[in-house]
Amino acid sequence: MSIGAYIHIPFCLTKCGYCSFFSLPFSQATINNFASVLLQEIDCFKQNYRFQPDTVYLGGGTPSLLSSDQIKAIIDALEPVEGAEITLEANPVQLTSEWLKILVKTKVNRLSLGVQTMNNHNLKSLGRKHTSQSIPDRIKLCRDNGFENISLDLLYGLPASNSEQVKADLDQYIALNPEHISAYLLSIENHVPLYYWQNMLPDETEAEKQYNTICEMLSAAGWEHYEISNFAKAGFSGKHNLHYWQGDEFIGLGAGASGYIGKSHYKRPDDLLLWQHSVEKKDITYKVEKETLAQQKADFIIMQLRLMRGLDLQLYKERFGSEFVSDYNRTIEKFIASGHLEVKEGFICLTQKAWFVSNSILQEFV
User: Fold this and answer.
1) I need a surface site. Which of 73, 82, 259, 266 has the fewest CB within 10 A?
2) Is 2-244's fold the same as 294-365's?
3) Cα separation of 45 and 6, whole Å?
4) Mean model confidence pLDDT for the chain
5) In this structure, is the dihedral angle defined by the CA atoms of residues 313, 319, 322 and 327, taken in order, positive or negative?
6) What is the C-alpha separation between 157 and 208, in angstroms, rounded?
7) Nearest-CA neighbor of 2 among 42, 41, 75, 56?
C-alpha cells in the first residue's frame, strides 16, 4: 500500500528550552547504534506490512546529525516510490556546502529548516544557535546544491511580542522566498526548562492578531494558505503532512514515534533501551490503541477540518458508511449559525473567523 513514513531521530546538539518532544543529547556512538537498530525496525515492519511510502519525513530531534550514509541507508531500506517527497529537518547551523554536497546525493528532496524567527534577541532567548544574518547565505547554499523545495518554520506568540515584530519577521521570510512556511504558536509545557515563560506569553487577543497578520501577509505575497498553520507556493504543499490531515494511514519509526495502521494508533517507546528491546522482540507497534468507530470519525473530522478546503463529505461517506451532516447535525448547525463553518461544493470548512480558535470548535466533534 502507498503510505507515509515518519522517522523520529531523537538527538540534539543542545535541547531548546521550550521543546517538549522526546530528544536526547547527541553522541556519535549512540546515534550509530540507533541507526543500526532503526534499520532492523524497518525490516520488521516490512515483514509485517506491505507498504511502499510515497512520502518520508525524517524529524526529531535533529535528523541532520545523521551521516549521509545513514540517511541513504534508511531511505533505501524504506524503498519509497519513484518521485516520493522525502523531507529532512535540519538545523541551520549544520548547513555547510560540504554537508549539502553529500546530502544531495541521497534521495532527500525537501528540507525543513528550524529558523523560527529572524529576530536575534528572540533566537538567543529560544536557545537557537544560528543568527538571522546567517540564514540568507544558508538558504543560498541549499539552492546552489540543488535543493528546490525548502520549508521554514516560524514561531509567533513569543514573550512580550506584538504584531509589528511578526511583520518584521515576515518581511524577511518573504524575501527568503521559501516554497513552504509553517507558522506555529509558541506553547510552553509545565515540564520544559522555560516553563516560567507561561506568564509572559501574549494574551489570546494579541496572539490572534499576530496569526491574522501571518495569514494576510503570506497570502498577499503568493503563498497559498492550505492548512490552518501552513502556507505553500503553488505545487509545494507538504505531501507528508497531508497524509495526517486527510486521515490516511502512516508508519511511525524510531524511538518516540507514533503511527496509524489498520484503524489503530500506536506509539513507539520514548526510551532508547526500551525501544531497542522492542525491536529485538519484533514488537513493532508497542503501545496500541484500537479506535472505536466514534474515535475514528472524530480523528478524521479534526484532521480534515484543519485543511482550508475543509472536510470531504463524499470521502466521509465512503469511509464510514454514513452522512457527516446527519451524524453531527446539531454541532454543524450550531457553527454554521455562528459563522464558524460553511458548506462549499461537497466540503464543509472552517471560516476565517474560526481559524485561530479552531481547537475549541474541533473538540466539539469529539
Assistant:
1) 82
2) no
3) 13
4) 94
5) negative
6) 9
7) 56
DSSP code per residue over 275-331:
HHHHHHTT--SBEEEEPPHHHHHHHHHHHHTTBTT-EEHHHHHHHHSS-HHHHTHHH
Q: Where are the domains of the chain?
A: 2-244, 294-365
The 10s digit of each residue's pLDDT in 245-298 is 998 999 999 999 999 998 889 999 999 999 999 999 998 888 888 888 999 999
Which cell is 106 given? 541521497
- CB-based contact 279:45 (threshold 8 Å): no
Please determine, looking at this structure, whether the domain spanning 2-244 carries the CATH number 3.20.20.70. yes
* Structure-block grid coordinates of residue 61: 530531534
Q: What CA–CA distance (Å, rounded) separates 269 from 278? A: 8
Alpha carbon separation from 298 to 174, 310, 328, 329, 362 (Å, rounded): 36, 14, 10, 14, 9
Tell which residue, 120, 228, 117, has the closest CA to residue 176: 117
**Distance in angstroms (rounded) separating the CA atoms of residues 331 and 325:** 9
Please report which helix (H) or strand (E) contains residue 231, including its range.
Answer: strand 230-232
Specify whether the CB–CB gap between 42 and 252 falls below 8 A. no
Question: What distance in Å separates the CA atoms of residue 284 and residue 259, rounded to the nearest whole number?
Answer: 11
What's the CATH code, domain 294-365?
A: 1.10.10.920
HSE-CB at 262 with a 13 A cutoff on CA atoms is 9
How many angstroms separate the CA atoms of 173 and 15, rounded? Answer: 24
pLDDT 10s digits, 138-194: 999 999 999 999 999 999 999 989 999 999 999 999 999 999 999 999 998 888 878
Question: Among 343, 345, 347, which residue's Cα sits nearest to residue 316?
Answer: 347
Of 85, 166, 66, 84, which Cα lies nearest the Cα of 122? 166
